[in-house]
Amino acid sequence: MEIHLEKIRHLESAMQEAEMTANEYEHQNDDSDSHKMELIGNRDMYAKQLQAEMDMLETISKIDLNADHDKVEFGSVVITDMQKVFIAIGLGKLSIENDVYYAISLQVPFYHAMKGLKKGDVFDFRGQKVKILDVF
Q: Which of 20, 95, 121, 134 is the most buried (most CB within 10 A)?
């Protein structure tokens, strides 16, 4: 959550700066001015990125950290003989207490290959057998 809150603060600031720069641009009366349109385009780009970050933050807030997962699903941590993953949103590689975890979203193929499986189950991923060592 901290990562996304920081990104949101940064994007809000960048969006406001792009808006101010576009409004202060000296050729204000020429709405077809390409530089002003570029500045407005930057603001709109930041707004889209901001919405995506807010959507991810909303998804993260739905995770019940007190839930005890016995199968692979949203919010679970899965330890396989290949890697350790946290099923939430795609953040990539995370280091937690000298262990490496990968935060992945529900859309990635690795999740789809093991969705609904339990500790001890084996699944095929890209031609390789992967065993689930633990789910919590």
A: 121
